[in-house]
């Protein structure tokens, strides 16, 4: 019976693990790429050449050699929560179920935060632009994000051939505030925000907001991403991504549960979860960042 209850709780967590109303909810899930908590990310071979007004036959044929990148899914463990039998007898609601919902919500938040960090480029390159903002001083020595910065970034993506549909810009709080001050149209869209999406088309981007920014600092003259979870010493960044080059997948989930019946000393129930999950960029094209510049 205990095993069955665990399985039901695990299935319920996966069923409702959707990252709704966030940028990550727009990324396609690829559970069929996962086996034993390892994902095989396909790498397409050479694309065919397009012939215009061809009159030479037979047409050349080439074999497309595909490959795979194999990655282990990230492991996410929640700390355990204790619920005593005394609580269950006096509370007017089912606390263990409520605790399990809280664990799922925390897993959703942490996996989304880690996913944003994971898709942000490690540093600037010709195909993954990491660019500093150029606006006025906000009073702290930080240069504001401007619409001109976004237009110039759009030009970079155009030059890289990134499809126009599916470009996402996940703004950090500082950059949202910068645009609210500069652009009345953005202000109006922000006031009408629905389901987490600020704008479906602002200067060519689908705009989302995230309160857990990626940060970059200058290392040997290059803007470099700081470690996940570290206390930031650099500047906050907004992340650019092309959704067509992203994939996510959940692997196994396990509920760890001990019941008060097996704890005669403390008479407490204890619950925790482990989840395997990943979000990756299949290709680097379309990935980038806008980092607050320094005056």
Provide keyphrases for this structure.
about 300 residues; alpha+beta; phage-related protein like fold; 8-stranded mixed β-sheet; 6 helices; globular
Topology:
Blueprint: H1 2-15, E1 34-35, E2 38-43, E3 67-72, E4 74-77, E5 81-84, H2 85-90, H3 95-119, E6 130-132, E7 142-143, H4 147-160, E8 167-171, H5 173-182, H6 184-191, E9 197-202, E10 205-209, E11 214-219, E12 222-225, E13 235-242, E14 246-258, E15 268-281, E16 288-291, E17 293-294
Parallel strand pairs: 6-16, 8-10
Antiparallel strand pairs: 1-2, 2-3, 4-15, 5-15, 7-17, 8-13, 9-10, 11-12, 11-13, 13-16, 14-15
Helix pairs in contact: 5-6
The percent of residues in helical segments reads 25-40%
Number of strands: 17
Number of domains: 1
Largest sheet: 8 strands, mixed
Which regions are unreliable across 5 or more consecutive residues at pLDDT < 50? none
CATH architecture: Alpha-Beta Complex
The oligomeric state of the chains shown is: single chain
The helix-and-strand class reads: alpha+beta
CA(first)-CA(last) distance: 63 Å
N-to-C SSE string, H for helix and E for strand: HEEEEEHHEEHEHHEEEEEEEEE
The helix count comes to 6
What spatial form do the alpha-carbon principal axes imply? globular
Strand fraction equals 25-35%
User: What is the radius of gyration?
Assistant: 23 Å
**CATH T-level topology:** phage-related protein like fold
Level-1 CATH class name: Alpha Beta
For the residues shown, what is the average pLDDT? 90
């Amino acid at each position: 019976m205990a095993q069955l209850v665990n399985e039901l709780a695990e299935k319920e967590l996966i069923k409702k693990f959707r990252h709704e109303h966030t940028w990550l909810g727009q990324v396609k899930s690829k559970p069929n790429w996962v086996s034993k908590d390892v994902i095989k990310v396909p790498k397409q071979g050479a694309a065919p050449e397009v012939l215009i007004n061809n009159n030479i036959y037979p047409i050349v044929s080439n074999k497309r050699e595909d490959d795979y990148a194999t990655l282990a899914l990230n492991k996410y463990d929640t700390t355990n929560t204790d619920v005593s039998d005394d609580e269950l007898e006096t509370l007017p609601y089912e606390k263990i179920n409520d605790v399990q919902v809280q664990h799922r919500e925390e897993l959703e938040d942490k996996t989304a935060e880690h996913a944003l960090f994971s898709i942000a480029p490690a540093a600037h390159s010709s195909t993954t632009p990491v660019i500093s903002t150029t606006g006025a001083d906000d009073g702290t020595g930080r240069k504001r994000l401007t619409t001109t910065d976004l237009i110039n970034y759009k030009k970079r993506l155009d030059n890289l051939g990134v499809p126009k549909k599916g470009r996402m810009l996940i703004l950090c709080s500082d950059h949202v505030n910068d645009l609210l001050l500069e652009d009345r149209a953005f202000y109006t869209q922000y006031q009408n925000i629905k389901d987490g999406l600020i704008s479906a088309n602002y200067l060519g981007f689908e705009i989302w907001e995230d309160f857990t920014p990626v940060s970059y600092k200058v290392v040997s003259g290059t803007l470099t991403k700081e470690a996940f979870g570290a206390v930031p010493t650099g500047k906050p960044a907004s992340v650019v991504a092309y959704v067509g080059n992203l994939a996510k997948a959940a692997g196994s989930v396990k509920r760890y549960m001990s019941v008060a019946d097996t704890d005669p000393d403390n008479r407490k129930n204890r619950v925790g979860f482990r989840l395997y999950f990943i979000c990756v960029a299949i290709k680097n094209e379309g990935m980038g960042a806008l980092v607050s510049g320094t005056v």
